[in-house]
Amino acid sequence: MNLARLEAFISVCTAGSFTRAAEQLGITKSAASQHVAALERELGVQLLHRSTRSLTLTETGAALLEDGRALLQQAQRLAERTREQTAQLTGVLRITSAEITTTWVAPVIAEYARRHPGMRVEYLPSDRLVDLVAEGMDLSLRTTGRRDSSLRAVTLAEFEVWCAASPDYLRQRGTPKRLAELATHDWIAFTAIPHPWTLPTRDGQDAVRLQRSISTSSTAGGRALAMAGAGVFAAPRFALDTDIAAGRLVRVLPTVKLPLVTLYAAWPGQHEPPAKTRAFIELAKARLKLAGGRSPL
To answer: Distance between CA 57 and CA 267 in Å, rounded?
Structure first.
């Protein structure tokens, strides 16, 4: 189907006349009429009933109008994405993320900068929840469940939550074998989560009520406390797997399926992100997919 003819048909239907449609398209009335007539010949159907005073859609024309609008919008979006891919991105991209994610955000930023040399990136790692609008940020990468209704967000990946403790702590206190046994252990909690804290399984069939002994406002702080022998700590897999592999931490209750944590990218406003932001999001998605839930280094 010729899209120029389809666009002329939709414009005529929307404007209600060939004259107004031609003005909107920047062509002559005769050309607009010829486009619609050619589309009817191409499809082998009549789309419009024409009279000296009015235009009326046929039943077939009404069906084409609805589907044609969607098709034309899709074609326009495809053309825009293609132009953006070939055009060099320029400007500044300001990103924030939690401190614990710096080890995988940094390589994504480095690759982004190599792919788009016209872009300058400003990176603000912070464990506080940054106000994107007030601080002029383009993108936030977070695992927190707290969402601002003024932001749009897209899921980047889901991660398993692991529990871990130091070898010394487990030698002194014993290794828990069942979820319920965590109630007798020292628990390193997040400050923002109300006390007491309940740790459920993914299927909701089991849960344990935990009593915090120490709390922290950051995942990095909790991981450091766990390595120092302060207690058991739970965090996304990517925050713990390197230390577990190195023997600084030991994963406990590996068969217990705790609720997944969603890593998402959020940006200000209620519309689709601009090309510079979308390019970073797609790159982050690709890197996380390759990592398969591990720390994507």
So the answer is: 42
pLDDT per residue as tens digits for the range 239-267: 898 899 999 999 999 988 888 888 889 89
Q: Please state at what angle helix 29-43 crosses helix 18-25, rounded to 10 degrees.
A: 100
CATH superfamily of 91-153+264-291: Periplasmic binding protein-like II (3.40.190.10)
Q: What is the pLDDT of residues 161-190, one digit of tens each?
A: 899 999 999 999 999 998 888 888 999 988
| The two three-digit tokens of residue 46, written as one number | 């009549």
Say if residues 176 and 253 touch (Cβ distance below 8 Å). Answer: yes
Cα–Cα nearest to 227, from 170, 273, 283, 276: 170
Judge if 91-153+264-291 and 161-252 fold alike in CATH terms: yes
Fold exhibited by the domain 161-252: D-Maltodextrin-Binding Protein; domain 2 (3.40.190)
